[in-house]
Amino acid sequence: MKIIIIIFIGLVGMVLGSFYACMGYRIPNKISLTKPNSFCENCKKEIKWYMNIPVFSYLFLKGKCAYCKSKIDPLSFIVEILTSLLFVIFYLRFGLSINFFLGIVLTSVLGVTIISDFRYYYISDRVVVLALLFILILIYVEKDYFFVKIISAFVVSILILIIKLIGDKVFKRESLGWGDIKLLFIISLASGFYSTLISLIIACSTTLVYYYLSKHEEKEIPFGPFLLIGALIVLFVAPNYSIF
Ligand SMILES: [Zn+2]
């Protein structure tokens, strides 16, 4: 029975991952999420449903558009695989508990943000607000320290905001984007003060590694996906909420 649930969760992850990748492209480009149907970014031809099956179509088409043979962005393939994998990993770790659903919400934000932040340096407010609502419902259902968690999230965010403002002055450029601050707010609401701090440290270190691996070519490094990866690692390893 368990294996059926795992396969089901994995498939849901693939389908949602495909949708998140689509959101990641469409929201920054101000294209509706429902219309038009999926199309090739190069030749604009509509992609038939059987060429639009998450993960498998990319492999079958060898990462190229069926019509014009232009390259399909491998990031969308990565998002489909990653979403599916993380859904399964969090199910195996927590079963169908609150922590599993927190993992699902953060993974979902990560899926959209990987595309929108890497490709367009954009973190969608709509996605953050939606995640905020889901996290509020989850911590409300959990019952423990509901209001304390909200106050703690504000305190953490204000602290980070102060660090950002100082950083902006010292480095004479934007040290942390506003999108990153909003992400940190939902992360601290989900996991508390210490976990947010550790997420931040993981995010900074992985960003540095990415910076060196990318040979300093990019002048602006997207920080949002690294923050969410940090938060997911902390949630997986140390799921207990830490009160400020
Ligand atoms: Zn094409």
What is the N-to-C succession of helices and strands?
HHHHHHHHH
Helix content: 55-70%
Shape: globular
Radius of gyration: 19 Å
Binned strand content: under 5%
The helix/strand class is mainly alpha
How many domain units?
A: 1
Task: Average the pLDDT over all residues and give the rounded result.
Answer: 91
Distance between the termini: 40 Å
Spell out which ligands are present. Answer: zinc ion
What would you say this structure looks like, in words?
The protein is mostly helical and 244 residues long. It has one domain (2-237). The chain is built from 9 helices and no strands. It has helices at 2-26, 56-60, 74-94, 98-120, 125-142, 146-171, 178-191, 193-213, 224-237. Helix 1 (2-26) packs parallel to helix 4 (98-120), helix 5 (125-142) packs parallel to helix 7 and helix 7 (178-191) runs parallel beside helix 9 (224-237). The longest helix has 26 residues, at 146-171. The protein is globular. The termini are far apart. The model has no long low-confidence stretch (mean pLDDT 91). The chain binds zinc ion. Zinc ion (ZN) binds next to loops.
